[in-house]
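Board notes (copied after class):
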Amino acid sequence: MKANPIAMLAAAIVGLCWCTSVASAETLSTFEPAGFVPGETVHNHQEDGTEAVPPISNINLSPKAWFIPNASSGADEEIVDLSGSANPADVAHGKVWRLSQGGELGTLGGAPQSPHMDFVAGETGALNDAGRGSVTTNVFHGSFDFRSATGAPQDDLAISVTGASFDQRHAFVRILDDGVNGFDLTFFDTVGNSFNSETFDLDLSYDDWHTINIETTFNDGLASGAFGGNDAVGNDLVRIFVNDMLIHTGTSWESFYASAQDHAESIDTLQFSGAQLPGQQGGGLYFDNVSVTNVPVPEPSTIALAGLGLVSLGFLAWRRRSQRA
């Protein structure tokens, strides 16, 4: 039987997209490997579940491992196995990471951090607070899935997820429980040394899984002003996606560092932080598929349209050849 070139072309496009997505991941924590044990901390665990040797610590930040600086002082976080859940979506996620504000999370250098990526993202010559080397890319892309760990409102829940480097950060997204309809999102950026925030009334349900993508493109220099001055205005670009929809485009904390510290900072990990709320012990959020890469957020609609265009062209060419035969 003669092969249909349209089907072959479509399959090639699908295969190309799949290969590209697989090759793009720098760090990806699914929590499925055997080393992630339900009831135990994620601290010092690498992507494959094995423990880093020597262990990660404040004076050894080299391992690509989860780092919970306050793990020994009561941070309320653990691996949870959802494979026996009655919810098919939970079953599909399997083992996940639960994090709440019931214990001490700390801020900046004291907060839980994901395994860092191989690349250091930032402007040319920017400093990396974790000491992991010079900038090697100008794109930082962090993503994760989350849902409520209780399926019900949790008063004052506010967990921030930030593109960071130990105790510096650049893209501040805060998940807020509105106490009635679900989760909203707040984004923080800076102009000069002032912080700006904007809250998005999303009403994300407590029972469903949601995906957040944080993408920062670092651009050398400033839009205006100068390093060391309060008039510095950043030119970095930050895009926030929720469930594959772009909800906000802003900038980074570049102008704050330019004004307050007279230099640019780079990032390579995701950090999770929040004020302590003892009543939240055992609750909080489930996280899964925590990823950090230097590949920009994919544009599904663009890829789909490009693929459709190629298939259409292939069909026309095949039809003309068939008519001539």
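Comment from the instructor: The radius of gyration is 22 Å. The first strand starts at residue 27 and ends at 29.
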